[in-house]
């Protein structure tokens, strides 16, 4: 193998590692042509070692940065002639290459001739087995990402050659021309971060960087670990690393995201400082602040570097984005950090308690050792609460719940990634679209409309802002639907069990109730059909019910706090499924009326009936930017719809009782089993009253569903039933609670009974009940029928779609059907109908003038008709396959329409040749909506504050 390679070795006080590094270079199976050593005025014997091994070393001042040292070394290497190398192999004085490292790198370069930068697998030195890096990237918060677990050992699990953003300079093999073309390493990064920056610039310039796991280099990471200090790093290694990370992000990120990046890094720095202070790392916290101030105080430096990079970039930033760390990764690191802090505090408390216990045992004489159980003191109790892992593994309920949650996430595998299909429209391109939809009073949809979007757009926009986009936000909801429902149901049912009996419900019964409820959105078919409204309500319902239990608290302050919590959760549920508020209103009226009839004296206290009334009354205030404009603009039917595409699933009486929606749910007879169990729950006398309460809630819910189900909503474009999916889940949830309470009463009765037949009957019923969640989970994990991966129609040419994305005035008029059976039309703008826009379009009243224009276009098109299309922002007219021949012939003969190409021959398309009106979709601004948005924002803040516990506690006398 021909080795046109020159090794460039940079050294500073590396005498402890250099002998091994020199031996590693000399033992290469493919020898390097030449070694150029650059020493930055080492104070140890490093220059002597380099001189003995490779001849005179090039000595530069100690203040020389790593990029400057590399630049100095390159100047010593001929650029032309037979001595000019093709490759430069950069090594550190603490990076020892394996004997076949260079051979593996060159073999990969021959196999991948398009690769210009290659990096080896880095393993820890001196342990030799722990992995350090196999390529690197950077997160949106500036964290250096390797994709490896902490302390991960090399077992060949990552030995695939792949494209990465960057590789470490310790062992980097780079083409000489690429290194020169990119100007070497950035001198603004004196020692840290120059590898990531160089790889990012290389990717933007169209160069490919790959990782070669077959090449191994052992790296001591002396500078990073603080083993060695240089005049550049000084005592503040963390400052240099953090400044390098911030600088790399700011100079390489897209221009349009720079303001957001500045804000995010500023807020992120404050959070990181708090985190370091929590673990008593004051120095690192100050380094974080100093790094931020250093960069934000030098904007010219950032702008200059951005201009330099912009001049050498040849590929769009979107091409580099896949090489960056995922947007969700910083949030996972945040959770990991919190877990580490909790573990550290737990371990510290455990050590303290153990030392105190040992001290007590050593001091106390044997005669004073208690011979009877005594109440443990605080230290003993704290010690007993430690050992989380041991307690977890010995707790079968905890293990089962964990496995159940993991299997549920396996069953939800269809929701990973982009989710769309069934009742779920595609996601918008970015989070900004949701914010604009929520904040705007006029929307460039169809012919333009002032109909407000449903209120669920706001929580989705907030979630997308946290998770990095609409796609991750919706995917997270569907993936965590079962685990979050499981968590909430376990929490709620445990409290219910304690209200029924002081000892609480047996854990087996709690386990059955929580798991059965958590699967309701799945077995009902709502999950598989993408009915996000029903799924979100299923996740919220246990938490809402738990908050509502606070209405029975004897403390008035707690009752009012419960009111604000209920109002916030109820408003969130109503945002996705408005019928929830109607059902809660009817239930509240029934409960209050019954209470007045039974305990009139108690209900005379305003703090008793006031909290439920307040919780119901606050919801319309929090959702006022939606329902008030909807009523004003004639879209009041939206108060009965549910989030998602229309028409809503038809829910009849059997669906209500069996908990099924459409054809994507589990077999209906599984729902019958739950219904029968809820009926049997009425048998135990000891728990009959709370079970009757559950049945009363179920009756009210079913009554509301039956009444609303008798109506159909005739909208402009579709006729649909009322969205009742959320009520189906609520009704089944009450069955679960009733069954659990009845099982608790049955367990008490069987424990006291002497008759064996009752025990046999209880065991038989329990076996049937246990089969419900287990078979439901198995059905879900095996792969339910779902529509979450259905793509949209491809009957519009792609170039037209791209044109429509350039502005709302580039609309596409899509005409379907034929003259014999009738024609329908719709106008596509932007990226089509996305989640949040469905209801706006369906609730917008038909425009008679535009309908008249379309009718004239399909019968007797004239130049004035075509001109009116241009004035309405219509650029293309499309007749999807199969196109009606008579309509197509009329459009072919029309002046002002030019035939356009279509991928499908049976699809016909025309372009409007008249000039488009750029202001065609402009609309008025509604000051009323602006005021309502302000009221909503203030209301959310006030209610959230009122939800918090009070700090004004009375002193006990």
From TrEMBL:
The keyword Membrane applies. PANTHER family: GLYCOSYLTRANSFERASE, SLR2126 PROTEIN. The keyword DNA-binding does not apply. It comes from the Bacteria. One of its GO terms (molecular function) is transferase activity. This is GT2 family glycosyltransferase. Residues 359-378 are annotated as: Disordered. Keywords: Membrane, Transferase, Transmembrane, Transmembrane helix. Pfam families: Glyco_tranf_2_3. The chain crosses the membrane at residues 397-416, 460-487, 499-520, 532-554, 566-599, 666-683, 690-711, 723-748, 760-782, 927-948.
